[in-house]
Specification:
The chain has ten helices and 15 strands. It is of the alpha/beta class.
Length: 334
């Protein structure tokens, strides 16, 4: 039946199609409540479905505010809901849907670990680390945020990461040679800087960056690396939604896995090793919806995507995504 999709602004087309393709394949229809700052994307997506030949009403965009979501979920015609967004938004939607006994799928925030052990290909790990942290100007739930590196290679890794961060070109995102653009809103810039400044105030060390850029028009934050975190900083529990890398040192794989898992989130994890035993432990012991070995975490239409813990529940994409919004019927005939 009709499925309500509450979607975010940061990947305004991909996030919607990631929901819509499996849901419509299963025979459902979609109702889109998109983020309020991307209304033209929302309208265009409905137009794309019509142009593709879908029946009228198979996918509809609702240009409504967040205050209308509760009434839409309560409508008897709406069978279920899915949301990609913040933890608070997910809790709100799940609470509303729960009152009406309607299923939800939630894809929420993350503070993904990027683990680099001593046997890793360091050149590939450093290059991928930059891409994984700077994706969409750092504004991605599956961006690598916590870089957990073995002591034996930590100094080299840190030096190379600083060099690559400092070499990134900051500027107009419409220019093809720009590496890093602005954050989406002034509020997001402030929220990110508040977390960074709290870490610094509590004694964390800044390797590069560390404060907003005031010489550019817009919400620009420089590529930043923080390290040497004393107990009690936001690095232990918060999502840094912007171009800030949190660098940790560990003595061995036991410490790496323990630190990676010591976070409320469990969306994705990237781990780098060329030792088979280490690889197997990372796959089995990391608490995440997806573990990528020697590669960057990404969503792929062929693979199920979603998290655990406070990163949400349910899956998008793959056969598992198709099965999320179907009713399983047991039939017995004598």
């Amino acid at each position: 039946g009709p499925i309500l999709a509450v979607m975010p602004w940061n990947f305004p087309f991909w996030q919607v199609f990631r929901f819509a393709a499996p849901a419509l394949m299963a025979g459902n229809v979609g109702l889109l409540k998109h983020a309020s700052n991307v209304p033209q994307c929302a309208v265009k997506i409905e137009e794309i479905f019509r142009q593709a030949g879908f029946p009228e009403g198979a996918f509809q965009t609702l240009l409504v505010g967040a205050d209308k979501v509760a009434a839409i979920v309560a409508d008897d015609r709406v069978m279920a809901a899915t949301l990609t967004g913040s933890e608070g938004a997910g809790i709100s939607l799940a609470s509303i849907a729960g009152k009406h006994l309607k299923k939800t799928v939630l894809e929420l925030g993350g503070s993904d670990p990027f683990i680099v052990l001593e046997s890793a290909d360091l050149d590939a790990a450093v290059s991928t680390a930059v891409a994984a942290r700077m994706l969409n100007n750092g504004q991605s739930c599956i961006a690598a945020k916590r870089f957990i590196v073995a002591d034996a290679i930590a100094d080299t890794f840190a030096q190379r990461l600083v060099e690559k961060f400092q070499a990134l070109k900051i500027g107009d995102p419409m220019h093809p040679d720009t590496d890093l653009g602005p954050l989406a809103t002034p509020g997001m810039l402030k929220d990110l800087d508040d977390l960074v400044q709290e870490c610094i105030t509590r004694g964390s060390k800044v390797l590069t960056g560390g404060k907003p850029l005031t010489d550019l028009p817009g919400n620009y934050y420089p590529p930043t690396i923080l390290t040497d975190f004393p107990p009690g900083t936001p690095a232990e529990s918060e999502e840094f939604f912007g171009p800030v890398a949190l660098l940790f040192r560990v003595a061995n794989i036991d410490e790496a896995i323990a630190l990676a898992n010591n976070i409320p989130y469990g969306l994705g994890a990237s781990a780098w090793t060329n030792v088979e035993e280490e690889r197997d432990r990372l796959i089995n012991e990391l608490e995440a919806g997806a573990v990528f070995i020697n590669g960057m975490v990404k969503s792929d239409p062929r693979l199920p995507f979603g998290g655990i813990k406070r990163s949400g529940y349910g899956r998008e994409l793959g056969i598992q995504g198709i099965h999320e919004f179907v009713n399983i019927k047991t039939v017995w005939v004598k």
